[in-house]
Amino acid sequence: MNARDDRIRQVVAELDVHIAEVEARVAVLKSLLAEDEGPGEGDPS
Amino acid sequence: MTDVTSETLRRWRESQGWDVPRMARELRKAARDTGEDVAAHHGLVKMIPQWERGARAPRERYRLLYLKIFDDALSFSRGATIGVDFAVRLAELRSRADGLPVPGEVRALETAALARPRRTRTPAEIRALAAEAVAQLHEIAGKLTELSALLGDDQVGEGKS
Predict the structure, then answer these.
(1) B79 contacts in A (CB within 8 Å)?
(2) Each residue's pLDDT tens digit, B119-157
(3) What is the three-class DSSP state of B75?
(4) Chain B residues within an 8 Å CB radius of A4
């Protein structure tokens, strides 16, 4: 395996981490908005 | 190729970011290179999904063409092969990256989240979450560009900017 292949694997690993972190942060933001769509105070259920 | 499933054929194709017509062109190109006689483009476009669904099995000449194509396509460089598992991982990463919001969408989420008081997050935390997500989207775009250059293709991803 040469340096280029090593770098490819490293970039892929870093991408994996970055993507997972963005997914997690976006999920938190969306969960906050989901509060708006939950049962409201006047909801009889 | 007895251990190559129909699902593997689909994954191999998707690992390169190829649609079915592109796969058909690649098969015909590989056939031309070796002097093989294969079906016309429109015939292959019909057959490839059938092979990938397992509805029918590719004949030997097509199986050999698949091996020839992906032996080349899954190679990073001379003497080094990434292997199917790694190519599949790349395809999954591309798919996940494509599914991420663009920075403007993150900002819109931030604005919406800040529009009302939240029980679980302070406004400062919400702003920090959005800022970190946007910064990482730029990092991802840069990494995808670098990966594209390293792989010598233009299909790793469009990037998020």
Answers:
(1) 2
(2) 889 999 999 999 999 999 999 999 998 988 887 754 444
(3) strand
(4) 76-77, 150
Q: How far apart (Å, rounded) are the C-alpha atoms in residues B17 and B8?
A: 14
Binary contact (B143, A18; C-beta < 8 A): yes
- Per DSSP, B93 falls in state H
Task: Confirm or reject contact between A27 and chain B (CB < 8 A).
Answer: no
Q: Which residue of A has its CA nearest to B101?
A: A26
Smallest Cβ distance to A22: which of B79, B116, B136?
A: B136
How open is the CA angle B91-B92-B96, to the nearest 5 degrees?
120
Token couple for B142: 């840069």
B23 contacts: CB under 8 Å, gap ≥ 6 = B13, B44, B48
* Spans of all domains in chain B: 1-73, 78-161
Please provide residue B75's backbone torsions phi and psi, each rounded to the nearest 5 degrees. -95, 130
| pTM for this predicted structure | 0.58
